[in-house]
Amino acid sequence: MVYQDFDHTPKKLKASIHAIKEQFPSQKLVAIIELNAYDSLDEKFVNQYKDTMNEADLPVVFVNMESIKEVNKCTTHLLEDIRIAFNRSDLDIVTNIKDLYEFLENFKSKGNNLLLMSSGNYSGVNLTELADHFFKNY
Fold first, then answer.
1. Cβ-count burial 66-77 (b if 16+ within 10 Å, e if not)
2. By percentage, how much of the chain surpasses pLDDT 70?
3. Which of 10, 61, 127, 131: CA 20 to 30 A from 99?
């Protein structure tokens, strides 16, 4: 199953992950949150994500580095800051849509649910297209 939730707040992320895990306890959950350029650069906001993805079997943060560069912000330590903020050493961070496609294609989707959360639009990609990549290696 693929789920989309149009939100990105830490509290909502944690609740959505919990709801899917509660409904499908025997399924693994791939949870992908898209952080927009402003949220991911705001230290006070991003630090609120601590432990929000603990129930996800495969936690992923998608940050479009091109959009961050467009707002003229330094990205030197951004990825490490995000990893620390989420408090998951196994957190995958994807920085462009091509790599997100590749990520979704590189594991078998059978036995997994996918949760896509964002207040944006995954770099303008149709979510059906992301789901197609998720199911490509069923």
1. eebeeeeeeeee
2. 90
3. 10
Q: Tell me the β-bridge partners of 94.
A: 62
Residue 69 carries which side chain, given as an amino acid letter?
K
Give residue-wise pLDDT tens across range 44-77.
Answer: 888 999 999 999 999 999 988 887 766 666 667 8
> Could you give the CA distance from residue 15 to residue 28 in angstroms, rounded to a whole number?
16
Longest dimension (CA), the chain: 44
User: How far is the C-alpha of 90 from the C-alpha of 138, rounded, in Å?
Assistant: 23
Classify burial at 60, counting beta carbons within 10 Å of its beta carbon; exposed 0-12, middle 13-18, buried 19 or more: buried
